[in-house]
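Hi,

I'm pasting everything inline rather than attaching a file, because the server keeps stripping attachments. The sequence lines come first, and each chain or strand is labelled.
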Amino acid sequence: MEDLKDYARQLGLEARRAARRLAVMQDSVKSEALRQIATSLRAEAEALLEANQRDVATAEAANLAAPLVERLRLTPRRIESMAEGVAQIASQIDPVGQTIQAYNRPNGLRVEKRRCPIGVVLFFYESRPNVTADAAALCIKSGNAVILRGGKEAMHSNTAIATIISRSIAAAGLPAASVQLVQTTDRALVPILLKQRDLIDLVIPRGGKSLIEAVVAESTIPVLKHFDGNCHLYVDQHIDGIEQQVIDVCVNAKTSYPGGAVCNAVEHILFHERAASRLLAKVCDALAARGVQIRADELARTLYPAAVPATSEDWTTEYLALIVGVKVVRSLEEAIQHINTFGSHHTDGILSTDRAACERFANEVDSSSVMINASTRFADGGEYGLGAELGISTDKLHARGPMGAADLTTYKWIVSGQGHVRG
Amino acid sequence: MEDLKDYARQLGLEARRAARRLAVMQDSVKSEALRQIATSLRAEAEALLEANQRDVATAEAANLAAPLVERLRLTPRRIESMAEGVAQIASQIDPVGQTIQAYNRPNGLRVEKRRCPIGVVLFFYESRPNVTADAAALCIKSGNAVILRGGKEAMHSNTAIATIISRSIAAAGLPAASVQLVQTTDRALVPILLKQRDLIDLVIPRGGKSLIEAVVAESTIPVLKHFDGNCHLYVDQHIDGIEQQVIDVCVNAKTSYPGGAVCNAVEHILFHERAASRLLAKVCDALAARGVQIRADELARTLYPAAVPATSEDWTTEYLALIVGVKVVRSLEEAIQHINTFGSHHTDGILSTDRAACERFANEVDSSSVMINASTRFADGGEYGLGAELGISTDKLHARGPMGAADLTTYKWIVSGQGHVRG
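And the predicted assembly:
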């Protein structure tokens, strides 16, 4: 226990020291480190695949569920896309030093809001090893030191990636402790880290609900939460000419990620009663043809009798599986009300040709991402042009939705005068 | 206890309902409510002064410290400035609906970040009654419902102001529960409120350190903290031609608020050794002439022997009184290091003619406000043009420094396609 306390303290102190230096690093240095990471990830893909194979073999031997093994797996394509993300972040404009706003006051004072790094980030994540590179790259770009704590199933993969990162940042001249991977899987370390408010500025847990709840309960440091995605699509009454699009978007939103096991997959589809009579059965047929189980309310079952009856529990459930809930509503208002009441405020979409309905839906649905005539699967940092994402915040404070490098900054007010005094 | 639980639940439920309606209110309606509040505050100044007199009399009878009685007191001028702040907020551009960023993606998707209200704010504050009007106005403008819990010493004043607010928002057609003043001084209500994460989105405690620490310890809702201001001024070696400005700014920063009892008053002045020999004694003389006690380190005392010797505890102390710590440093770096180590990251300033020194100080001092050749007393929402402030955040997440209406918003991503599906 004393050892763990010492280790936690050391992680925090080294991160704090590194953060002070990183905060004032030129972008050329930070970007060079990122380019080196991208190059090395590509050059050492073989070694990464080997390390990953050890994790995958252990997971399979332990009978880990198939979707979890899938998330854990690296492939040449996944390594390339990880390297590409890091390279993209390298070429972004440095968020640090950007002026958010600047203006002169009547008394001649000049007031500027200027972006600066937050400091030290503690990042928890689960099995996907590419997150190690994404998170390190976003933190370096934004001038923050990061302490990474990945899932123990991915320990060999994460260590291999972290080794490449360490070598690259040392070569570029960044402080070694800019990126630290926690070297123990002992869970007792977690509550100790979460109490170091003097050394850590922000905690981001990305993963299952129980991990996040545990972090929130223990932490005295501000936490940015990445909760579940109980996502909806609402099929409006105005769908003339977009019937096929509606079917395609519903199918894509549910099935484009293997097994539907991803937070931005659609979980429930609401049909306006006028759309239901025309399209509900066709959408359900298309989904069922892809192996999706349909759970429907009473009205929807009259139109698609093959559906399993939905219970009230269904509406709050994030299946993360090839299951979808289907319901008929009488109005746009009822759809908005349902989504705001039973949804998780992650990503919800409308399919409609009616401008006013789309605008009202966008304004009144209380979700981090609102999709208009597009698949919920686009809710993603890469798709939004952020290069990668640290996660998808379901919080309303600081950052909401997919988080990129700029979301890892705060700002300071810089006020310039000529000997101004206050009257 | 059951009564308190019911009351807490009722406050939260009514706020949530009001917030949903407020979020989509037109600005003309919100602004009309604010103009009515401003008009009524002016028209009913007599009644407000009377109610305030009851609070002041009780406080004086209870031998409350003079600066606290001073903060509690309303004057015709303070009422006018409260009304003026509300009117100014009314005329600001509505932050809700503002597009922060919008762009097209290569695949034709349009991505927009649009400001929207946070929802329900729970606001704790202490004795200054004008904060009731400031907070209500900022929350209404930004489309948030607010639950106000002021100090019990100001109960009569706050109730009188809240009555004016209720009447005005009803007349303008806003939901009555947009602004609710907590009607009990029972402290047992506080932890109950702080656990209602489903009904309250943000907690802002503004006041003493113990209040804030208690809120942070109890809350499962995100908290924006407003901690203490251990503010510094650094007098650089380059001060040719601005010697008198240096003296004036130091005196203003310490003494322009009665008794120095305000978070943006300077608490410690650091002199570069080359500036010290020329100016330290003059600055100390000017401060002493205004009744300020000087506490100095050893080097400073050789230049100003009348000073009280400072102890190591002094450097971390926010005096909130007519006391100032004075210290000689050997370099700009030492000043920055001292401020980042012993300060509270609130407001710190540099006095210098050297552009590079000012820029380096601004970049490296980790403070919410950095003053360049200006008094620390300018760190204030009104002075920054925000109309009023909800407080001065010492947090790095979400909002930092003085918080105005826009800081009470979050955003949503609105993504528009034409039947886009993800590949």
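The first strand of chain B starts at residue 99 and ends at 104.

If the labels don't parse on your end, tell me and I'll reformat.
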